[in-house]
Amino acid sequence: MQNNRLAVRIWDLPTRLFHWALVVCIVGAFVSVKLGGLYMDWHVRFGCTALGLIIFRLLWGIVGPHYARFAQFVRGPAAVARYLKGAAPAAGHNPLGALSVMALLLVIGFQAASGLFTTDDIMTQGPLFGLVSESTSSTLTSWHKLNEWVIIGLIALHLLAVAWYTLVRRKRLVRAIITGNVDAKDLPAGTPPAQDGFVIWLRALLLGACVTGLVLWIRTLEVAADMSFS
User: Fold this and answer.
1) Quick check: 100 and 74 in contact, CB under 8 A?
2) Is 217 exposed, middle or buried (0-12, 13-18, 19+ CB in 10 A)?
3) Would 125 be classed as within a structural domain?
4) What is the number of structural domains in the chain?
5) How far apart are CA 52 and CA 56, in angstroms?
6) Residue 40 belongs to what H/E stretch?
7) Cα dihedral angle (143, 217, 223, 229), rounded to 10 degrees?
8) Structural domain containing residue 214
9) Is residue 57 part of a domain?
10) Which of 24, 48, 70, 172 has the most beta carbons within 10 angstroms of its beta carbon?
């Protein structure tokens, strides 16, 4: 059975929106923390938004469409070894790319979560700073700063991999994460398209609303944290 389409929908709209929204948050958080001063308020906003996005993606990896689910693309060392030896991957993330996805979700998730408890000892603190001891906050602040370099390193590797696949393997990865479509010739024969329509969008909207409510609730604890130290 052969694909009878020029392109196949692999990445659903919510997954694509998550990807680019996270890019905006990472860039925004990095720029705002380097500018400092009053821009630190924006750093906290970007960080909390990134936390919500990571929570959404973790849940979407369970209830989302086929290619967005972790069960579809997270594989063991044997699958990675076969891919490195030249085995054709299934549609979606290849085994090596899956490791990159999980690593980025882990380190960015840690950065966003640890930021809730950090302080710059001047004028900015995370929403949950007042719920932990000064020692715990100091430790998390140190890890938060060190993890920034881990994120930079992983993003650099990610961009290098995208460039290699684009220039050497002629895979249109950037276009795919924008349009959601992958060239049929780059997929195994008979690859079914991902679900991507009103039902999927409504599911994502409801999930996003719940996650947004959770993050907003976390932000309300900032006042309680300040009062506990008064």
Assistant:
1) no
2) exposed
3) yes
4) 1
5) 6
6) helix 40-63
7) -50
8) 7-228
9) yes
10) 48
